Amino acid sequence: MLCQECGKKQATLHFTKILNGEKTEFHICEACAREKGELIPGTPNGFSIHNLLSGLLDFEPSSGNNPLTPKAPPSRCEHCGLTYSQFSKIGRFGCSSCYKHFGEKLDPLFKRVHGSTLHTGKVPKRSGGLIKHKREIESLKKELLLRIENEEFEKAAQLRDEIRELEKKVAES
């Protein structure tokens, strides 16, 4: 594919920009990218994954920012003294206490990056059946307790039977 700017050289950089839901793609050569001032991966002033993550870490959930309200001083981790702005620049926490201290700010970040704040992990194919059954049993037991609490005894009895069947399958494995 040829460069969309000069039309002479091979396009080596491919950018996709999404503004207000409108997707625009650019295919340009390295020389035209430098002229336009675009960041080129792999060059000293280029784009890095750290820059991407730093941009995401600057994300603050909307908290009704009122310009007349004085800003609170940055909160610090009680154990190591690291601030959230320092974390966003460095990309690493100073200690294990930082996870608890900055937890409120991390949940929206995880939701944006991963789509969820709950880590479910992967299940291996070979032993996956056993793990799936155990997870399903746990889930059914929680639901069973809720049904009993809500006095839905018929549904609770059905869940009890399902749990027993799954426990037999796990025991046979």
Based on helices, strands and strand pairing, what is the structural class? mainly alpha
Strand order of the largest sheet: 1-2
Termini separation comes to 55 Å
Number of strands: 2
Residue-averaged pLDDT = 75
Instruction: Characterize the biggest β-sheet.
Output: 2 strands, antiparallel
Low-confidence stretches: 59-70
Question: Any idea what the shape is?
Answer: elongated
> Residue share in helices?
40-55%
Rg from Cα: 26 Å
Helix count, per DSSP?
7
3D architecture notes:
- The protein has 173 residues and is mostly helical.
- Helix content is 47%, strand content 8%.
- Strands 1-2 form a two-stranded antiparallel sheet.
- It is elongated, with a radius of gyration of 26 Å.
- Residues 59-70 have low confidence and may be disordered.
